[in-house]
Structure formats: structure tokens, C-alpha cells
Fold:
Amino acid sequence: MNDMTQPELMHGHHGPARGITRWIYTTNHKDIGTLYLWFSFAMFLIGGCMALVIRSELFQPGLQLVQPEFFNQMTTMHGLIMVFGAVMPAFVGLANWMIPLMVGAPDMALPRMNNLSFWILPFAFAMLLSTLLMEGGGPNFGWTFYAPLSTTYAPPSVTFFIFSVHMMGISSIMGAINVIATILNMRAPGMTMMKMPLFVWTWLITAFLLIAVMPVLAGVITMMLMDIHFGTSFFDAGGGGDPVLFQHLFWFFGHPEVYIMILPAFGIISHIVPTFSRKRLFGYASMVYATASIALLSFVVWAHHMFTVGLPLAGELFFMYSTMLIAVPTGVKVFNWISTMFRGAISFETPMLFAIGFIVLFTIGGFSGLMLAISPADFQYHDTYFVVAHFHYVLVPGAVFSIIAGAYYWLPKWTGHMYDERLGQWHFWLSMVGVNLTFFPMHFIGLAGMPRRIPDYALQFADFNMIASIGGFLFGFSQLLFLYIVIKCVKGGQKAEDKPWEGAEGLEWQVASPAPYHTFAQPPRID
Amino acid sequence: MKDQNPHKTTVSKLVLATLGMFLFGFLLVPLYDVFCDITGLNGKVSNTAYVEKEGFTIDPNRKVTVQFLTNTNANMNWLFEAEARSIQVHPGELTRVSFSVVNPSLKRMTAQAVPSVSPSEGAEYLLKTQCFCFEQQELNPGASQQMTLLFRVDPQLPDHISTLTLAYTLFDISSTRPVSSIAERPGTYSGFPAATDSLFTSQSLLISHAQTLRLAGGY
Ligand code: HEM
Ligand SMILES: [Cu+2]
Structure:
């Protein structure tokens, strides 16, 4: 461990190395953050293309474009890539860039491990994507890979799927260890825990969630591997195992996982809203406690994904009420953001637009979550498009909007240039319309009974599906505009001040724009 | 920063926590089973013979209906039947039921029957002193066999339960390694699952047994 941070110290204050080796060997938190963010964007586009394959097929009833087998591979890969390839790495990228800047540390605690945890990812996803070309096709059992679909009935490529998920897990765990060590040990003198910016707080809690549940995921896929290749029967009823056990284990990981994808988003929004309201965040301490209680509660609600497997009545009730309980701390957060805006001198730059979009649409997702949490109702809603609508509302205008908002917010700090505000506004409005056109109708077709993960559907669902498909293409292509805006901002543009946003607070705005390659070699003092 | 020790302790704690959670994941497997065993949830029933304690008073005034379902798993082609679909017993009375299997295929096969009781609340009151499900069945092509179940209904059975359903699912386990006892195989654990898959489990608990029968293909 000793030598891990030494090279950084010896480098002193010169700039980055030149050429491609800069990126391969880099141990600089800003470089690695940038790598993570670009990687995540690439995955976002690849996963997005798969989503558009799905939406094209669903444009009309009947089978037009793809075979059902391939359709299943698309839904599976889309989910896996968006969750593990787009959303999670994007947050890790933001953490790498911003946490050292926010706590006044010169770098992450373990820079070499940082390099490794990033560079595992391209290999993991190359392996995952390569399964699409293998005999029998790629994973086709849904991103939740329920056994026995993913064991007894899986395509041969499932082994590669297992290994790539193992690699992603190892990468996330290393990232989490790094984040925790940085936050706990490297804060500038005077920065007590309750003075930490909320993005740091939410990431600290997220990192603990990662440490707690990624190993369980690793355990589940190891059991799958053993069932498939070594003759065990963890999930095979014929040998004394139990497929329902798979679901318990998966969702023990899975539900905290969805909070892994949203807690850092809460942090980002808690920075942007006060900045553009020119007020302090309302209820800082309650935000911290709400985040912590959401994280704790997330361990006792997993079976709300399994209401229909035949839980005993007591189980149905317990998981129903515990799930509803989560809405309380979540509500506290929404309340705090709104109170922050209340009577503020609000201006609507792009980051703020995305943040407000987040608050409104995420809340809709929370409400549909509450509907799903009502166990008797869930018997009707389960495995329909209503669930699809729910989780896309919390993940797309939730997690993804917050990432985009964060990117606009910190782009001036990263690049030293202001992004094109006019195009940013266009990007927001196109995304906003696209997202709602895509996912709002799914509530209706879901309530009307359209099952999810099916390439064909009954005629009465046709109109709403067509609307959703049009919305999907609109949203998808709007993201190319985002790509253009980012590239344009990297290349040039109006010079950004050190603190480009009038109401912004925090150490990251005390360093120059663009942030120098090395910052806070001398820790700042905080009082 | 000069002092690397804080990182060292933090990181080693976190690595330990990670390994601990990995093990915990595996620990959940037996825990799940013990939990289901104790609570009788999931219709799990014991996979060892009930050891008779004397002093069962037969309750002549009460009658309990016991239904038998015989299902075969997806790829299992054996014919599997109970001699009666449903019988009435007095609690405490020792009852024998015979099941028959035929292997209509052209190869020697091994089968394992996996039991499940509904309602799950009643699982612990169905006491099997002898059951073919405690063993595996091996049959030559075309061969058939009678199999015995000996059971009692515990007189303690709660009053509101008047019907118990014992469902067996027969699995083809010829391809898995030849082993003497299911409980000794790696990765398995004592106790049996409720049914062949989650869909079926939920159905059997949610809807009447007659419907379950129809859904399962009946016999
Ligand atoms: C108030 C908060 C929430 C409640 C009460 C809630 C409740 C639920 C319930 C009951 C389900 C299961 C529906 C079914 O399968 O029948 C579900 C599914 C899901 N939720 Fe939530 N949820 C909440 C917030 C979130 C958040 C914040 C995220 C992620 C950022 C999320 C992501 C998901 C996902 C991905 C699924 C679907 C998993 C799948 O089957 O593929 N939820 N939610
Ligand atoms: Cu959940």
C-alpha cells in the first residue's frame, strides 16, 4: 500500500504526460475521472442504440425487424449496459473528479488502484458485448438473470457474462474502497464530517452500499457458475436447490443497487439547486440523515420485487410497509430541495433546468414506486410496462438527468470554458419532451396489462407504443446534441471564471478553471 | 498524506468487509433454508423420515382431506401417479399411499421426487415416516415401480386447516453425477423447494388446487 501514493508525490507539479500513454498509465484523479466519464458516455450511446432497436420493434404490433431471440438479447444487454456501464461508471467518474476537489485532497487515496479499477471496465464490457457474436447469442435472460433461465436454459455465452460481471464488480468495489479511504482520511484540516459537501456524503454512503452488496452479487453469479459447470444445485430444484432463492439473493443485491444509482444523484442535485437559487441548502443535516436512512432501509425491502413468488402473508405485509417507509426520507429530500428554491433568486441555466426536471420527474417515479409497493396492486402491475415506466422515471430523468446536470455544472471547471448555453437549453427541452413521450405512455399500457420483455403485443396497445417509440428516438438523438455541446466546450468557448456560478459554494470553485493537473498539494484551511 | 497508515487500516478493514459480505452471500443459502424449515414457509418439508414418538392419539371425530399431486418437471417423461388423488384421514392415524412410476423411455434413468405442502402453514404437521422422496429412483427402460408413502397428520394440526395438499414434482437427475443421497451433494442443502419454479409456486399458493392441477397439465 505504501508505494501507491508515492509516485504522485514525486511527480511534483508538472503537467500530464503526452500521448496515449498518459491515459493508460495515469494515476491522476482528474484524468481517471475523465476516462470514466467518456467511457460511460460511450456505453450510454451503445446501450441507447439497443434501446432504439427495442423501440423500433415495438413501434407497431407484430414482428417486423428482429427475431424474438434477438429482442431478448437486446433488452438484457440494454439493461446491463445502462446499469453497470453507463450510470455507475458515470458516478464513479464524477466522484474521481470532484471528491478530491471538494474535500481539499491532492488526489484519491489509492491512485494506482484507481487506474486499475477503471481499466478493468473496457475489458469487462468488450467481453460482455462480444457474447452477442457468439454461438447461441448473448445473454437473453433479462438484466435480472433469474435462474433457471440463466442456468439451465442459458445460452453457452453465459460463462462470459458471469466473468464480465465479476470484473465489473471488482472494479466497483475497488472504486468504493478508494472513495471511502479518500473521504475518511484525506479531508482538509477543519473539514468535519458535518461540513462535507453533500455529494461527498452521498458518495460515502453509496460506497458503503457497494461494499455491502457487490460481493453478494459476486456470490450469486459464482453459484450460477457452479450450477452450470460444476454440478451443484443451488438454484436447481431437481438437485435440492431453489430458484426462489436466486431471487432473494439477487434482490438482496438488487434493491440496494438501485439506491447506488440514485444517492449520488441526490448529492449532485443538492449542489445545483442551492447554487442557482442563491440560497443555502435547506436542511443540510436532515439530508445527511435521510440519505443514511434510505441506505439502511434499502436492505430490508428487497422482496418487493418478489411479491408474486408466493410469499407468506406476513412477508407481503412486512415488505409492503418497509418499502413505503422509504418514501418518507425520500420525501424529506424533495421537500428540502423545494424549500431551498422557495423565495430564492432563481436563474434557469442548463444545470438548474436538469435539476428541476430531476425533482419533478423523479418524484413521479417515486409515486409509481409507491403504487407498486402496494402488494395486492403489484399482483396486477408486476412484470408489466408499469414497472418499466416506474424504473425508467427514476433512472432516466432521475439518475441520468442528474449526471447530465452535474456535467453542465462542472464543465466550466473541467474544461476552462463555458458550454454553449443556448444549445444546453435546447438539449434540456428536447430531452424533457423525449423522456416523457417515451415513458409516460408506458404507465397506461402497463396498467392495461401489456407485459414487459415481449417483442409483440395486442392491438389495443398500438398507439401508446408508437408514441413511446417516437419519444425514444427523440430522446436518443437529443443526446447526440449533448455530445456536440461537450466537444464544443472542450475545444473552446467563452473563458470560464474560477467560480462561474454566482451562488456556488465549495472548495472546487477556489481552484483555477480549468482545474490545474495538480490541486491542493497544500491542503486548504477550512473554518 | 505523509502518513500512509490510515489508508492501510481503512483499506484492510474494507477488504475484510468485502470478503465477509462475499461469504455472507453464501451463508444466506443455508440461512434461507433454516428459515424456511423453522417457519415452514415456502411449503418446505423435512427431507428426513419422521421418527415416531409413541402416544399419538387418533382423533376419531376429525377428518382431514389429504390431496396428492404428481407433477413431472419440464424434461421428465416418466408417468407418475398416485393411487388416489385425495383421501380422508383421522389425525394421528398411520396411512399408506402407493405411487407408481413408469419409465417409458429407451434409457435407464434416475429420478428424484421433490415434495411440497400447501398451505405452507400445514407443512410441519404432515409427518412422513417413510417416503420415496427420501431416495432416488432408478428404472430400466420400460420398467415400472410402486413406491410407498407412510404418513400421519399430526393431531395438533390447527383447526382451520381441513385440507392438506402434498405435491410431488419428479425430476430427471440422470445426467447429474450418480450419488447416493441428495443431501450429500455439494451445493445442496437439506430441505426441498416448494415447486419446480417460482411461477408455479406462486400459482399453487394463490389459486385453488384444482386450478393448479389444470395449469400443471393435470393427470
Ligand atoms: C419511493 C421509492 C421507491 C419505491 C417505493 C419503489 C418500489 C418498487 C417496487 C415495488 C418495484 C417492483 C415492481 C415489480 O416488479 O412488480 C420496483 C421496481 C424497480 N425499481 Fe423501484 N421503487 C422506488 C424507487 C426506486 C429508485 C430510486 C430506483 C432507481 C434509481 C428504482 C429502480 C427500480 C427498478 C430498476 C425496478 C425494476 C427492477 C426489474 O424488475 O427489472 N426504484 N420499485
Ligand atoms: Cu427495489
Q: What stands out?
A: Chain B is about 25% helix and 30% strand. Confidence is low (pLDDT under 50) at residues 177-219 of chain B. The radius of gyration of chain B is 22 Å. The domain at 6-215 of chain B is CATH 2.60.370.10 (Ctag/Cox11 (Pfam 04442)).
